[in-house]
Amino acid sequence: MRSVVRNLAGLAAFLLLWELVVRLGVVNEEDIPPATVVLGRIVELFGQEEFLRDTIATVLAWLLALGIAAAIAIPLGLVLGSFPHVRVATRAIVEFLRPIPSVALIPLVLVTIGGGPEAKITLAVYAALWPILYNTIYAFDEIDPLLIDTARSCGVGKTGILTTVALPHAAPFVFTGIRMSAAVSLIVVVSTEFIAGASVGIGGFILQAAHGAGRTDLVLAGTVVAGLIGYLANEGLERLGNRWFRWHKATTAEVA
């Protein structure tokens, strides 16, 4: 409860500062509307079926992309983490692809697969892949060799070591990668909707409000909604991780 109160207090202070800066004329109200105006627009938007459809489209694309990225990155990370020779053989390819920004691939994706939902899902999968993959590989690098040797001395085979030693150790790291990828993939989904001019989605709504109606209040309202989705997702995953992997944090604290 203390954490929730602190978060709410910080948010209230930020909104109050925003309101005062605009009301006192430090910033032109036509450029940045007051916080009360933007919050009022958000309430109105959630009463509109079209905006709810945009929000649902963005959330569904984001969840689908995150699920696909996890389904690809976790098994791939297990392979690369378990077999050093395979990791060395694929290092050049991975290090070449990883730094490429997803946004830079938008023109290529639009040309190859079109501007439908597949485009933003594909780009979000690409962006979300790397945090999960690297956290999975890192988890295998951090396994204490003594644990593996102990399991082998007890007659546990390779499959047993993977399921009883490696995977339980890697689970908290993989979950952290998923939490990081959740934020990244949401950013990419909304950005792709905005840049590609999607007909449905929060990014498309922001684009239409900015260039069509020129409504800064609606632009900020859509942006705040996207940020709120990201905050709730991160907060929910963090609380879930604290509950599932409480033992991991305790062990880390003891070692530290």
From TrEMBL:
Keyword Cell membrane listed: yes
GO CC terms in record: plasma membrane
GO biological process: transmembrane transport
Pfam families membership: BPD_transp_1 (PF00528)
Domain ABC transmembrane type-1 as annotated: residue spans: 55-237
Membrane disposition: Multi-pass membrane protein
Transmembrane segments: 59-84, 96-115, 121-140, 183-206, 218-237
UniProt-annotated location(s): Cell membrane
Primary residence: membrane
InterPro entries: MetI-like, MetI-like_sf
Sorted UniProt keywords: Cell membrane, Membrane, Transmembrane, Transmembrane helix, Transport
Taxonomy, superkingdom: Bacteria
PANTHER family for the chain: ABC TRANSPORTER PERMEASE PROTEIN MJ0413-RELATED, ALKANE SULFONATE ABC TRANSPORTER-RELATED, MEMBRANE SUBUNIT
Sequence similarity: Belongs to the binding-protein-dependent transport system permease family.
Entry protein name: Nitrate ABC transporter permease
